[in-house]
Design a protein that fits this description.
about 230 residues; mainly alpha; three-stranded antiparallel beta sheet; 12 helices; about 5% strand
Length: about 230
């Protein structure tokens, strides 16, 4: 058996070329560097990253598993374009996961902690100059931190996986998002955290409605009932 003193933790931290390429491409996709539906040409991209096409394909395969790219025969890789049915399906999963987390938080009287407060401050610090890709990142960080309060590793992981596709959906809806007021968007998050702190069960109903907001919810009656949380 290998003694603990013989282990070299630094070796465990080594990042492979596939890992590095995957992390880079994920950041670029979630900041909108690739047009949805546009073919991503492997050779120029691999050359610019200084990696082989085999390594690039392995990285794309990982991104495909979380919904950030899709592959089609004779066309190759591209960022998916989400239609209404796919968008609503992702939001349905979000409602289910987030409502479950909040129910656990309320049942166990869990109070939002310092991590939640820090994430909320980042949301409140967003200005009009901040790009939507960054706004969506801080938005997702807050909701992920809230879900993590429930204490379920699998619930948190499922939410994190869903959040990747949700951010991409929202990024493809920037024109719709821009119609929402920034201050109202901030206040929605403040109200959410405060409701959880008070133990207000109305937050469960809110989680089933305003988190489902999407560009097609344009019916006048629906629009009044649906909140504008990103």
């Amino acid at each position: 058996m290998t003694a603990t003193s013989d282990l070299h933790p630094s070796r465990l931290e080594t990042v492979s070329a596939v890992d590095a390429a995957g992390a880079y491409l994920r950041r670029e996709i979630l900041r909108g560097a690739f047009e949805p539906g546009e073919r991503i040409r492997e050779s120029p991209l691999a050359a610019s990253l200084g990696i082989s096409r085999h390594t690039l394909r392995a990285a794309f395969a990982r991104l495909e598993s979380v919904g950030l790219v899709t592959y089609r025969e004779n066309r190759g890789w591209s960022v998916p374009v989400f239609d209404r049915a796919e968008y609503e399906d992702i939001l349905l999963l979000r409602q289910s996961l987030e409502s479950t987390a909040y129910r656990i938080i309320l049942e166990r009287a869990i109070v939002p902690d310092a991590r939640v407060e820090a994430a909320l401050r980042r949301v409140q610090g967003v200005t009009e100059e901040v790009e939507w890709s960054e706004r969506l990142e801080v938005d997702g960080d807050l909701h992920q931190t809230l879900v993590d309060l429930a204490g379920s590793r699998r619930l948190s992981q499922s939410f994190a996986d869903m959040l990747i596709e949700l951010r991409l959906c929202r990024l493809q809806s920037v024109e719709w998002l821009e119609q929402r007021g920034l201050e109202h968007w901030k206040q929605l998050h403040v109200d959410l955290v405060e409701a959880l702190r008070r133990g207000d069960r109305a937050v469960l109903q809110d989680a089933g409605s305003h988190f489902a907001s999407h560009p097609w919810a344009d019916d006048a009656e629906t629009a009044e009932q649906v909140s504008t949380d990103a």
